[in-house]
Specification:
- This protein is 58% helix and 0% strand.
- By secondary structure, the protein is mainly α.
- It has one domain.
- The longest helix has 28 residues, at 32-59.
- The protein is rod-shaped.
- The chain starts with 14 loop residues before the first helix and ends in a 5-residue tail after the last helix.
Length: 64
């Protein structure tokens, strides 16, 4: 499974946002709620990634 992302910042785009943006102007204010959901999902993913990285650093785990 791939996660579609934006070229700038790699923000995941949920299928609902992709579908809606493909049928109307991406700047349509009606899409605002879908953009907000995508940003919230990204923030959750980002915090988990950062937390995992911090835990690895604290524990001295080499992830490479």
């Amino acid at each position: 499974m791939s996660i579609p992302t934006e070229p700038i910042g790699s923000i995941p785009r949920p299928e609902a946002l992709i579908d809606a943006a493909s049928t109307r102007d991406p700047m349509d204010p009606a899409l605002e709620a879908l953009y907000d959901e995508a940003i919230k999902a990204f923030a959750k993913i980002r915090s988990r990634v950062i937390g995992t990285g911090l835990a690895a650093t604290i524990l001295g785990v080499d992830d490479g």
